[in-house]
Amino acid sequence: MREVNGSCKTHQRETIMDYYCSEYDKTKNGKMKKGPVASRSLLVNFKIMKTYVLSFFIFSFFLQAHAQDMEVFNQYNRELNTHSRNGMIALGSWATGNLIAGTAGALTTKPGSMMFSFHLMNASWNVVNLGIALPAYFGARKRLNKQYDIPRTFKLQRQQETLYAINMGADVLYVGSGIFLQEFGNRYSNDNVRNSFKGMGYSLILQGGFLLIFDAVMLGVHKSHWKKNERKIWQQLEFNGTSIKWNIPSKK
């Protein structure tokens, strides 16, 4: 290393770490002095840079593996919410059709007749069905692209199965209530009262019967969906007796 006209020139060394230009450090009195610190500084910087690059690639690999692994659960949840959305389309269609037909039937039949009560009950009942189907439809559609963690995936599946199982129990009660109203109406000699009870009873049997079939089909769809993907989902988890570990499969 040598100084020519205040400038610094470099020359070849045996290794790249020895190839440097001497830095100048100012002393307290303002004079310049040579300091062979550049090679050490370059070595430290090189190690730091190597650490950053290595950390970046490890972090990128982890994110990629994490995203690929979670895609199993994301795809499952998209399919689950698609089934829920389609179910609400079916329920909303039934409700809309019965609301239109029931209103038209109530307007064209004699008040106090059995058919008047039947149509009026159908229309009234399906106002509730439509009020359930619309929010549930938009909620399922909103959840289509939502990502869930693993506990939430299991919770969502359990909620769907529990919901439709409970609904099936309620549907049996609806049908039973319809049969009871029919028999209860026979106790009255007044035609209008008897026809009102019998018309509402027939309506409850019809609506409860449909909902029983609907909920049974939806429960079957969700159970079948789970069984189809069960092995693939459990492969992502590992039990050691005291905890659950989430496996990140390696690429082949």
Please describe what this structure looks like.
- The protein is mainly alpha-helical and 252 residues long.
- It folds into two domains: 2-36, no CATH class; 77-246, no CATH class.
- It is 71% helix and 8% strand.
- It is built from four helices and six strands.
- The strands form three sheets. A two-stranded antiparallel sheet has the order 1-2. A two-stranded antiparallel sheet has the order 3-4. The protein has a two-stranded antiparallel ribbon with strand order 5-6.
- Helix 1 (38-108) runs antiparallel to helix 2 (114-142) and helix 3 (150-185) runs antiparallel to helix 4 (191-234).
- Residues 1-38, 52-68 and 247-252 have low confidence and may be disordered.
Provide a brief overview of the structure.
With 252 residues, this protein is mainly alpha-helical. The protein has helices at 38-108, 114-142, 150-185, 191-234; strands at residues 2-4, 7-9, 23-26, 32-35, 237-239, 244-246.
Quickly list its features.
disordered N terminus; single chain; 6 strands; mainly alpha; 252 residues; two-stranded antiparallel sheet; 2 domains
Fold topology:
Elements: E1 2-4, E2 7-9, E3 23-26, E4 32-35, H1 38-108, H2 114-142, H3 150-185, H4 191-234, E5 237-239, E6 244-246
Antiparallel strand pairs: 1-2, 3-4, 5-6
Distance from N terminus to C terminus (CA atoms, Å) equals: 53 Å
Task: Report helical residue fraction.
Answer: over 70%
| SSE order, one letter for each helix or strand | EEEEHHHHEE
Biggest sheet, open or closed, and with what strands and sense?
2 strands, antiparallel
| Tally of domains | 2
Radius of gyration: 37 Å
Number of helices: 4
| Rough outline | elongated
Q: Strand content of the residues, in percent? A: 5-15%
Low-confidence stretches: 1-38, 52-68, 247-252
Derived structural class: mainly alpha
Count the E strands: 6
Strand order of the largest sheet: 1-2
Rounded mean pLDDT is 76
